[in-house]
Amino acid sequence: MPNYTTGEIAKQAQVSIRTVQYYDRKGLLKPAAISEGGKRQYTDRELERLKLIRLLKSLGLSLNDIRSLLASPDTTNVLNSLLTEQAATLTQQKQEIEQQLRTIHQVQRSITDLRLVSSNNLIGIEKIMESQKHLRKLHATMLLLGLLMDVIEIATLVFWLMTGIWYPVLIGFGFVIIMAAWLLNHYYQQVRYVCPHCHTTFQPSWRQFSFSKHNAKMRKLTCPHCGYRGYCVEISQVS
After folding, report:
1. Domain with 66 in it: what CATH number?
2. Do 124 and 192 lie in a common domain?
3. I need a surface site. Which of 19, 32, 80, 195 has the fewest CB within 10 A?
4. Between the CA of residue 208 and those of 203, 215, 219, 224, 234, what are the distances in Å?
5. What confidence tens digit (pLDDT) does each residue in 217-238 have?
6. Is residue 104 part of a domain?
7. Which structural domain, as residue segments, surrounds residue 43?
């Protein structure tokens, strides 16, 4: 039965020596023997095991999954379950990536069709830069005032718990509610949205703005021009 050194088995399996050593440390690929000089020796059995690990790794399985598979007495069923789970994960990731690509393409089309950027229009570029700068400042202001409201809420609650006096809590929470309403209205007045379907820039109704799903860059709205229902890109209403 032929013996392989670490370098030889790595070459046969088309992996690096460091990979073989790493799998050894992780208990996935133990040598068949160790020579008197301390060199690790492998046989065809370890070579086939290394090729199998390499194949499973290429399918996206983690080393923990591979270890569980190799240690299982029911390899076939365990492998089928792991591959089914991996296929579902990859399918979900594919769908998310495809959605992100569609959104990027929609934004690119809106930028082109609305002529927000032109190679011969430096003013347009300056307006975009100004808008993005204004939007970052607006987000920073929202964050700072939000933190201030949190401090007020916590401080009044701590005061109530320590003293038993409750009316400062009522005053503090009343102030926070008023401040939050003002802050939301201020934000509403400062932003507009671009429809990815017809590229119209619009301001949604107050109700739609307040209760729609959103993230840091988009809000799920209905375009008043074409009726598109979905995520629209947020821009700043620069004065």
Report:
1. 1.10.1660.10
2. yes
3. 80
4. 10, 15, 10, 11, 14
5. 788 899 999 988 888 888 887 5
6. no
7. 6-71
